[in-house]
Design brief:
CATH superfamily: P-loop containing nucleotide triphosphate hydrolases
CATH class: Alpha Beta
Strand content: 5-15%
Strand order of the largest sheet: 2-1-3-4
Distance between the termini: 29 Å
Helix content: 40-55%
Structural class: alpha/beta
Order of helices and strands: EHEEHHEHHHHH
Shape: globular
Number of strands: 4
Number of domains: 1
Largest sheet: 4 strands, parallel
Radius of gyration: 16 Å
CATH topology: Rossmann fold
Length: 173
Amino acid sequence: MESLSTNGFVRSGTTLFNNVLRASFPETQIIPYNHRIKEIGLDTNSTVIIREPVKCVSSWIVFDEQPRTKKSAGNSLEWFCAFFSKLVQHKDSICVVKFEDFVANPNVSTQQIATRFNLSDRVEVDADELFAKVAESFPRNSPDWSNESFDAVEQLVRSSSLYDEAISLFNQL
């Protein structure tokens, strides 16, 4: 059986990504290393979903169970930069999928993954149906972006001293 490892930073759509990959590659073992930096670059067939830092980090701060006093924009971006620095080091050996491209057309993304790793069991999925099932099963993973906290937190992220580095790392992928 072929295998495909997956990864992504917190709040990058990893739950949705893994569910779509399981449906799209029914004969391939999907190995989720969600949010774990040390696994980046270890496997031969490895894909990662990435999301730009403002939405990703803001969502993490707003929706995390810990009080915000324990998680600032600065230390969240520090984690983001550490994760993305490792991705940049291994970018030639992993298949990078951008969150926005993935949610716009997951079948195109899965075709790119299949081509990259010569996976022969790929099937087209009904994205709307699958996205709805994941949203129903994991309601906390589908944030309400009208939440007033987002605007304030997004401003904190953009004004952090690490914001430019985070954008630079994201753009290198």
